[in-house]
Write a structure and sequence with these properties.
mainly alpha, 9 helices, membrane
Length: about 150
């Protein structure tokens, strides 16, 4: 074989071997670990715990009774519900409403709410205005104006 042929074969073999021995990339997540564990650690479980108590804790937390909460939830559920994706579970309508009510009741910052519900402040800042809009649209029909 000529030197040129050996060089071409050696180069091709190197390229093939280098391509086969690539390291697998470490799996990347779109969210941090505390938010991935939201379904296990808090969120809906926290709301369920509040509702199982005597009712005063739930009322203090959301500033409304559980009956009023569920009435409002059923009124706006279809408009604030999002679908799960292959990458992550959607934040439930219950959690969206509870976070929004807690924000309206206390004026807590989104940073404070993110640790309470394990939902990132960026996501909270996107859905709170949407939920508020739907609350206004739903409850405006119950407000009677004297003119």
């Amino acid at each position: 074989m000529a030197d040129d042929d050996v060089l071409v074969i050696s180069t091709a073999a190197f390229i093939v071997i280098a391509g086969l021995s690539k390291r697998k990339k470490k799996k990347r997540w779109w969210t941090t670990k505390i938010y991935r564990n939201r379904l296990v650690t808090r969120g809906k479980l926290f709301l369920n715990d509040l509702m199982q108590e005597d009712g005063a804790h739930f009322r203090n937390f959301t500033r409304m009774s559980s009956d009023d909460f569920f009435y409002l939830l059923e009124s706006i559920r279809d408009k604030i519900t999002r679908s799960d994706t292959h990458f992550r579970k959607a934040i439930t309508a219950e959690e969206r409403l509870a976070i929004t009510l807690r924000y309206l009741a206390t004026g807590d910052s989104f940073s404070s709410l993110q640790y309470l519900f394990n939902v990132s402040k960026q996501v909270i800042s996107k859905f709170v205005p949407e939920v508020c809009k739907e609350i206004i649209n739903t409850l405006s029909q119950h407000v009677k104006m004297n003119g």
